[in-house]
Amino acid sequence: MIRAEHIVKSFDGRVVLNDISADFAPGITNLIIGQSGSGKTVLLKSLVGLHKIDSGNIYYNDVCFNRLPFKERKAIREEVGMIFQGGALLDSSNVEENVRLPLDLFTTMSMSEKRDRVNFCLKRVNLGDVNHLYPAEISGGMIKRVAIARAIVLNPKYLFCDEPNSGLDPMTSVLIDNLIQEITQEYNITTIINTHDMNSVMEIGEHIIFIHQGQKWWEGTKHDILHADNRELNDFVFASAMAKRAREVEM
Ligand SMILES: Nc1ncnc2c1ncn2[C@@H]1O[C@H](COP(=O)(O)OP(=O)(O)OP(=O)(O)O)[C@@H](O)[C@H]1O
Questions:
Q1: Reported ipTM
Q2: For the sheet containing 29-34, what is the strand order?
């Protein structure tokens, strides 16, 4: 469980997160949505400790993360998996080396133990026999799977995903969304996903926070969204004519 309490963050006196509070429960997919520039990435980075917040508190279970000394914060960070936009694999390392990297950095496992763990994680994301391929030799969807395998290799308690299906076709996006949801449930991970993708919202939006101009404007589930009486949310979610018609039909 991650809890944000009254988060305020500004840059050069300009407030970009204004008093945001939210609970992110484990075992479900928590989505942060909002227009470009609304503050989603700043919120995600603040929650993970990459931005120092001006005020408020961030709890990881019962521990106040933002007030911890550096060493203890680092220990919690080792329980965090991250999936970055574009995958962020090392181009000069092959798939196995990319997935193994957190094990090399943070564990004292033997090489054969590491190889077993890497193979287990690659299998979990439905990738086989790609260990020796380089990122340039695999598809965008495979890159995301490798990024997911790397994010789970240390058995994280918390998983942060920044636009996990950016650049993917709609079918591959659904597969990646479903994979993240399955892994979240299977290992009871607290997962927070930053997304613009309305298909993701309707597919895996078990808990959704809508950010508007730096404020939490609406909160609910994918089922609530269809009936939400919130103009900014509706303008954002049902922006296209097709989405508007789909909503009318559903209503
Ligand atoms: N390091 C920074 N320094 C100054 N301003 C920043 C910084 N990072 C973000 N901002 C500002 O904070 C606001 C929110 O940015 P943020 O990246 O969180 O938006 P977003 O909702 O993630 O947008 P997008 O969907 O386009 O990625 C923007 O106005 C942005 O210019």
A1: 0.97
A2: 80-83, 158-162, 190-194, 29-34, 207-212, 215-220
Ligand 1 neighbourhood includes 46 CB (under 6 angstroms): no
Token output for 169: 């076709």
- pLDDT per position as a tens digit, 194-220: 998 888 888 899 999 999 999 999 999
Residues 167 and 74 in one domain: yes
CATH number of the domain bearing residue 16 = 3.40.50.300
Answer whether 37 contacts ligand 1 (Cβ < 6 A). yes
Give me the mean pLDDT over the 44-72 stretch. Answer: 93
Shortest-distance atom of ligand 1 to CA 42: 18
What pTM value is reported for the model? 0.93
How many A from CA of 216 to the centre of ligand 1? 15
Verify whether ligand 1 is closer than 6 Å to residue 40 (CB atom): yes
Q: How many domains are there within the chain? A: 2
**241 in any annotated domain:** no
